[in-house]
Amino acid sequence: MKIPTPEKTPNGYYKLRMRLGGKNIVITGATAADCRREATAIKSEHLTGRVVQKKCDTTLTSAIDNYIANRPKLSPSTLRGYKTIQKNVFISAMTQKLDSIDWQSVIDNDEHSPKTIQNAWGFIASVYKENDMLPPKVRLPAKISRERAFLQPEQIPVFLEAIKGENCEIAALLGLHSLRRSEILDVTRADVDLESGIIHVRGAAVMDENCHVVHKKTNKNATSTRDVPIMIPRLKTLVEQFGGKNSDYLVSCHPNSIWREVNRVCRQNNLPEIGVHGLRHSFVSLAYHLKWSEIATMKVAGYADYGTMRKIYTHLAESDKKISVDSMKNFYTLVK
What we know:
The longest helix has 28 residues, at 306-333. By secondary structure, this protein is mainly alpha-helical. The chain has 13 helices and eight strands. The strands form three sheets. A three-stranded antiparallel sheet has the order 1-2-3, with helices on one face. A three-stranded antiparallel sheet has the order 4-5-8. A two-stranded antiparallel ribbon has the order 6-7.
């Protein structure tokens, strides 16, 4: 590959862009010769299987601050996620310069879950690219696949009876209608049309970097904006009894309170602790049990990815298969 000709920038320095190994590399220098010299070295190192990182005096935490400052329109939840990584993940690397961090050692010694580390590294890689640097090649821990707990169809009536009168009852019933936590917290009295029996899901409520609830006019994606039929009579009764104004939110408790209350009710009634998202998964489980089509379930639940929906349905189908096989085994044990 021929080294491109460096271009002079308005500030008097020179810049050279080249593509190597499927990545765009930007090199700057005081002279055109400096740029060509560094580009030649990088090309040579690449051909021998090594990558020379661009020099950078910026610390990781300062680079993160700059990355965030360059994006003033970040959503509150995204900003909170970035700040959480900055404060809690890869702590030993935060005060080090970008070009001198031994990332494999940092990752190997981080005690967070594999999922947290993978998500954090995705953000850090973006910070490197923001500084015209190649993200270092690292070995990330493999994610541990855990099945999310949910209620089986026969457990849902037990849960409905147990949740009656609890502070989180409306929130739980909205979750069983497929609403996500962010959607549950954003439903106002005006969003529920009792005459038509429809819940208009339009916005979302998320946590900002200070753990305050912030309401947004839009929710997770385009398919999340939807009309959900009211299918649990008790929800309609509770909304009718709601004494607030049309602009008041049906659920006003803290998001973590919903999670704690749902799990407490589950524990006390020998049900799996499903949290808030497990309510949504329980909706899908019941839809599968009632032989809803995947398309119908997707539309009501607001799934954007058909693959996600199929993965859940496939998981439920495997569970059905095991029950069927066990029942046949039981049949043959009775045959003399």
